[in-house]
Amino acid sequence: MKLHKKLMLVYFVTILLPIIGLTQYFLNQMSDLIIRYVSDSYQKILTQSSSGIYYNIRFYESILDNLTVSETVQDVLTHPDVYREKGVYIMNREISRSVRFIQAHQATDVESIEFYSASPDMISDGVYLFPFDRLQRVLGMTEIPDSKFWRLEYSKDKYFYALVRPIHSIGEFQKIGYIKLTVQIPSITYVQEIADNPSIPGGSFIIADSTGRVMFHPDENMLDRQLPEEITNRTSERLSSESELSMDIHGTAYVMWYRKLQNVDWTAYLLVPKDSIQLKVKEMRQTIITAAFICSVIFSLMTLLVTRRLTRGIRRLHAKVSRAGRGVLFTDRRTTAKGDEITGLERSFDNMLDNLRELIHENYVEKLERREMEFNFLQTQINPHFLYNTLDAIKNEIDMDEKQKAIRMVVSLADLFRISVSKGSNMIRFNEEFYHAKCYLQIHEIRFGTKYTVEWDIDPRLPHLYTLKIILQPLLENAIQHGLKDVRDGKIVVKGKHANEESVIITVQDNGVGMTKEQAAALLQNSSSPKGIGLFNVNSRIRMYFGNEYGLSVQSERGKGTEIMLKLPIKESGEHE
Fold first, then answer.
1. How far is CA 135 from each of CA 74, 129, 132, 197, rounded to the nearest angstrom?
2. What sequence ranges are listed for the domain Histidine kinase (predicted)?
3. Which residues, 6+ apart, have CB-to-CB distance to 57 below 8 Å?
4. How many Cα atoms are found within 13 Å in the side-chain-facing hemisphere of 57?
5. What is the CATH code for 402-569?
6. Are the CB atoms for 74 and 95 separated by under 8 Å?
7. For the chain, what is the radius of gyration of the CA atoms?
8. How far apart are alpha carbons 15 and 300 in whole angstroms?
9. pTM of the model
10. Which CATH number does 69-186 carry?
11. Can you tell me the distance from the alpha carbon of 364 to that of 574, in angstroms, rounded to the nearest whole number?
């Protein structure tokens, strides 16, 4: 695992996980606070709504209070005979003057204002003044209470609120009649708190009287019906609820708050489904979780950027060490003179790579020079002794007046050394290498006579390929001097063929005395042995030039002869790669 990922893991374990745990604890605590806050909010709405409704009720009650003590109303109801003499028109005009300010001020809400006289002699004007029995018929009551009261009234396919109260004479304090004020429902129940919270999402604001009759409901179809028993049973004991009440109504779980209104036998109820409250809690939790998640992501990205920046030097150093492990020793210097400890370590590592690269270069050049010296030394070990012996042989032939033999030896020797020199190149074609070997055999034949035969079996594709020079002659020399020594009818077979697409095989086989496996193995390992110096030099040259996968191998059996196999790479040009 990379270092910056480890740092991120440490951050996650030591910081992020505790934050998540604290967030979860905070959410649990917040849930209780949210529920308490929602409960307090609904109670506040209920209290403010109740106060607003009470204010509206008191407003209309005060209107009726003023009308009951109006001089005109008192005169009309106290002395009906006087106004009967004046006529209906006069009565209507007098009362109209008394209620005009009300109708002008509340023109959209006041449906009607009616006066009912307790005197049987009262004449109705059909607008304001009516006999008492008509009130009984309108209200459907035979006994009218002597105190003011509100009731729900259905008229003209619509529900209204009706406020009824008795009128007493000021002088004698006797009941002289009743007044009924009919107003539209919104004029009483409309309050700002409910208007700002339409329907209280999923809930209902309800008003009912002491008998459980619904006086207000958002759904007009529910007006003038009875409240569910679950509500009336739970609210009959106390005037108001100090906390929410949980209940099931028709299979739905609700939370309810209620409050009895002042100076009227009404009770206001606020019912909210539990699911809507839980939804508010869920929304709040979701908001908090989303904010916490966004903050965590931002903080994690910032931590990632900081850790990557802090570990940038380590990652560069790791990349350089990895490249150095693969053998790539170049330096990519991006560090400045100033920096932290990692930057200093990176500079030191770059300096080390520079020194190592220079040292490798020096060692490589030194090794090449040493190999060149060894190669030249090995090549000089092959040529001198043969040259000296051949020159002595030419001198002897001249002394013995064998001019033709001397000339043939000189020509073969010249060709042999022309190929050996080959303009300073170490690579020659195989046909030149074969000719070089044949020149050597011809010189040896002139000097010592023919005691053996040589057969050549060469693949016709080989002569045009390239090889190291002077690698075949030492093998033939070793076969003649050591393998066929003291052997009559000696035979040497030289074969050349392609081993595969990458290499060729040259074998030199004789039917000489042979040797043991130990002696054969020692030929390629010891350059001090007089029998193996030529083979050791050839094998060393080939391996130095082409690699350890090429070179000589010796197979021999005492009394049966020896076979030396030479493995070389296929080279189609004289340039060494």
1. 19, 11, 5, 38
2. 468-572
3. 150, 188, 261, 263, 264
4. 21
5. 3.30.565.10
6. no
7. 64
8. 10
9. 0.49
10. 3.30.450
11. 23
